[in-house]
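During the no-cost extension, the postdoctoral fellow (Dr. R.K.) reprocessed legacy sequence entries with the updated structure-token encoder. One reprocessed record is reproduced below for audit purposes.
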Amino acid sequence: MSSIWRVIARAVFSVVVALGLLGSLAACDGGNDGAPGTAGPPGPGVTTEATALKVTITGVSIASKPVVEFSVVNERDVPVVRLDGARMTLAKLIPGTDGNSDAWQSYINRIEVAGSVGPGTQDQIQATTDSGGSLVDHGNGTYTYTFGSDVTAIAAPLAVAYEPALTHRIGLQVSSTTLPAANATYTWRPSDGATSDILNNDIVQTASCNECHGKLALHGGGRLDTQYCVTCHNPGSHDANSGNTIDFKVMVHKIHRGENLPSVEAGGEYAIWGFRDSKHDYSTVAYPQDIRNCSKCHDAADSGTPQASRWSTQPTREACGACHDNVNFETGEGHGEDSVVAANGECSVCHSEGGLAGSVTESHRNPLREASQRYQLNILSVSKTAPGQFPIVKLSVTDPTHSDAPYDLLNDPEWTSSSASLSLLFGWDTSDYHNTGNGSSTTPASAISLNAKTLATASGSGTFTVTSTSAIPKTATGSAAIGLYGRAAADVDGDGVYSDRVPIKSVVSFAPITDTKAVARRQVVDIAKCDQCHDQLTIHGGSRTDEPQLCVMCHNANNTDIGRRPSSASLALDGKREETVDMKVMIHAIHGAGFREKGVVIYGFGNNANDFGEVEFPGIVSNCTTCHSGSSYMPPLASTVLATTADSGGSVADPNDDTNITATAAACSSCHDGETAQAHMEQNGASFGTPQSMVDNGSITETCEVCHAAGRIADVAAVHHVTQ
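Re-encoded structure tokens follow.
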């Protein structure tokens, strides 16, 4: 399985799924909501209804038991009354010294007893929420919560001194059986009430997390904000059942690295026992991009995370050892030349500019990702694309970092190396690709592929010309797509050998076959959205990169993996003769594997089986706009969209004997793959066994849009809870 598919298929990491849906971690278990005050009927100008809440902490006073004033309004800014309760945390920020990072310390803690489950044997301290407090509803959307704990005199189970001159943070979770969850935090210095120009430690913003996760919703869906999370997930908190720390900077790093943790690769596991002693095993988690891309979460350019650069400027044993968990800093084992690091202040001696190990930023570079910025593929012109003609493409590869200087494809080592590739694809027609007549008996629906490296001839000024060795079929109509894709070779280690593969963004152009002028293929997904998780989506050995318009040329409705599968279905991993590789089905099935009732197996390069049955999408799988452009996910689909081949029939090369699934049903059943869902679709015009000709002549007509189109009774956007 190729690396990117392995990353996707091995349970793409989801804090939302792993923590939120499986239950809350024990770290925040045990807190009690404050009892609501007596409430009469809602007065004028207030409501008990909301689809979203905005909570604002307006003030905090601490004499003995902290008193918190806050307000709650709904999505229309109408005050909300009758909350069921509120959960509160309180932590102080202890300044780091001697190389230690600044650290939050909760005032409110409990003891978790070990021994009931897991390998842990020692009872542990855990931060938690306040208990025994009281909540007063003032009937106008404002509330007062009084802590049950006197934070000026905390002696057990952990003595925590009240230090009003330090930065403090209140974490608030409002709760209601009928209202959506909401969090708020308030960061200030109690000694003088200052909220600005105070010590802070904001290194990751929830919005960055939500670029992949859609909406963080942990501990049963009530914890939504990383600023809230750190008030409990601080260095003093541990999971007694595993013995692992649940310090945020350690736990989250380890979860994201998951299956690639050295300890896991050596045969161990990384697990946390959470709510009601349930086990959360993160040993199969895979991060969907290069783990060295620390700025994905720690964005120093974000004004909301002014301390984000500390990952590179203030290395610590705890943060670094979270990913590099085969290092024993006390003994030096696994650390360079068995170098002992007795304290965090020693880390920057070596891990700094000019230090023995170089800067942290340097050690987290991704040289191939950086090198990819030096290449740009260009289709300059396309001619001879009428039926029966042999297309001619003029192209170049340039360097955007050096004033678009052209590369010499015939002589530069980046292209003469065997590690480099450059290819052209020709597909038709753009109303919906089928590529009928491509001349292949094994992959009759794939686009025509040409080796541009071997066919290119110099045409002056750094440009090259490729004349296709295959003609546009005489039966082809409409418009054609021309894709240029490949990878350069690099010498990353400086040994003079250009052997490292550099992905380059693919490009696609369009040309008329019988159309008066070229008609582009519809745009369905936005690659920028894909790259929120994948950073650089590159597959097929790094040669197809960041261009869905290229993917769909081969991943079309008529194409399946039958040419890659064993000759007998009984020998296939899933016992099937073939599986569609249609983009609208395959990508939904892969990303929605955790929702499907059945697994999905696709045979690919090298005739290898790719089993996507264990995939867990890190975001909200029902939110179609996570990937889709505009309303491209909404029915009705364009009338030109082809039904999807389910069985290639007796002749693989003849699409007329294929058994198909009608287009909308194919897309929807890729996630909703159960028998009940199929029956519903069939009752409303869909077919799971029809030739395309019956769709074309109107014998079979899907009526999905009657209920599922925009504004209808079961509007897809509404039932999927789509957010833009």
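The longest strand covers residues 479-490. Confidence is low (pLDDT under 50) at residues 1-32. The remaining legacy entries will be reprocessed before the final report is submitted.
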